[in-house]
Design goal:
- The protein has 4 helices and no strands.
- 74% of the residues lie in helices and 0% in strands.
- The termini are far apart.
- The chain is elongated, with a radius of gyration of 32 Å.
- The protein is mainly alpha-helical.
- The model has no long low-confidence stretch (mean pLDDT 85).
Amino acid sequence: MDIVTLLKAERDKMARQLSALDAATQALSGSDNTRSAARGPLTMSAASRAKISAAQKARWAKVKGQKVPIKTGKRHISAAGLARIRAATRARWARWRREKRAA
């Protein structure tokens, strides 16, 4: 046999051993990237996360013997509260402008 042929055969053998070592290392480390490489990362909608969160909170409440919290929509600020925030913001900007003119 030719020396070049022997070297190529040895290279192929080493490549097979290296790929086997890589597979073993990956299996032992627990990081299987084949799913994320093939399909990309898994995503979940906000509604699904909210359902899972509510179910888990209900399970913990049941375990602790507490009443199950029921969420009833979003909380909104009152008109009076919004007016107070706007007035405070206007006053803060007015004070900032006065200090800027004085300086």
